[in-house]
Amino acid sequence: MYIKRNIGWGLILRYGWKYLIFFSLYALTIFLVYHFLDWKFIDIPFQPLTVIGIAVAFYIGFKNSQSYDRFWEARKIWGGIVNYSRTWANQVLCLVKDDHATKTILIHRHIAWLNALRIQLRQPTSFSIKESASVEKLFTKHGENNPACDATKEFIAKEEYLDLQNRKNPATHLVKNQGLHLQKLCDLKKITEFDKVLFHATLEEFYNLQGKCERIKNTPFPRQYAYFSTVFTWIFMLLLPLGLLNIFENELHKIADELHPWFIFLMVPLSVLLGWIFYTMEKIGSNSEDPFEGRVNDVPMTALCRTIEIDLRDMLDEHELPVKIKPKDNILY
To answer: Which residue from 78, 82, 151 is spatially nearest to 116, judged by alpha carbons?
Structure first.
């Protein structure tokens, strides 16, 4: 998640430099063939282009709205994970009879679940967004595009960790192990049957929250909206310089003859500017479709996991607490 109020131009250019170069060369080519080769026939009336532009703007707006809804739902889910994690720790500390070692195991296993869930959600899928080499290099430098699967190792017993290595869904098995551990505690009279019901209600909520995350992760943004938004935007951007030629042509009679070529040349920077605006609007929606990929605009799960870990270990009265996750180049992962 990008946390700086203003987005730096360095990051903007990482995402858009190839397209700025393409727009510039394309618009310049249109101007050269129009002016020097005298291809006057390539201009098109601007009025139909305005209709296309309005339609594309509405379409992009719809896509961006739905993409943001996916991000915001994901963030609310992780807000629920934060709240129920604290509830779980409070239940463990208050309901399990004096056995600090057992309390530590239950709370540390929950921290392992958080990290296992984060790792699973960060795994790439067939429809994961592919960025430019410049952007991918940034993520590689930060070391967040390939999350380490050893994040759970320090919080659970070695035998349990080795068992998770062979599981398809480690996060699911960690919650299951919590339930089995609660049954043993109930058999040993360290918690009551009523306590166990309270614990299992919280575990059920963890499964619900995990399932909601997996629903967003495994359900791509409808491709008919995402794909045709890109297609329509590119059609508009490619037609834009041709329509601007028509606009400038209609204004030529107001300009001195020696200024005609320079006046028409203004369509090049104007085409680049308008093309970049529409490209950026379309790109914003694409970058918000999948909020768990560890990208610039995604849910900062690593930071949230660390925040929960600090809170829970502090509730256990541990003294050597980890430090909070710091943003890297203004990006909080």
So the answer is: 151
Q: Quick check: 14 and 135 in contact, CB under 8 A?
A: yes
Q: Please state, in angstroms and rounded to a whole number, the distance separating the CA atoms of residues 123 and 120.
A: 6
Q: Domain total for the chain?
A: 1
Q: By CB neighbour count within 10 A (0-12 exposed, 13-18 middle, 19+ buried), where does 238 fall?
A: middle
In-domain check, residue 157? yes
- Examine residue 123 and state whether it is found in any structural domain, yes or no: yes
Other CB atoms within 10 Å distance of the CB of residue 232? 17
Cα 213 to the chain's mean position, in Å?
13
* pLDDT value of residue 115: 92
> Is residue 321 a part of any domain in this protein?
no
Cβ neighbourhood burial of 287 (10 Å; 0-12, 13-18, 19+)? buried
174-210: pLDDT as tens digits: 999 999 999 999 999 999 999 999 999 999 999 999 9
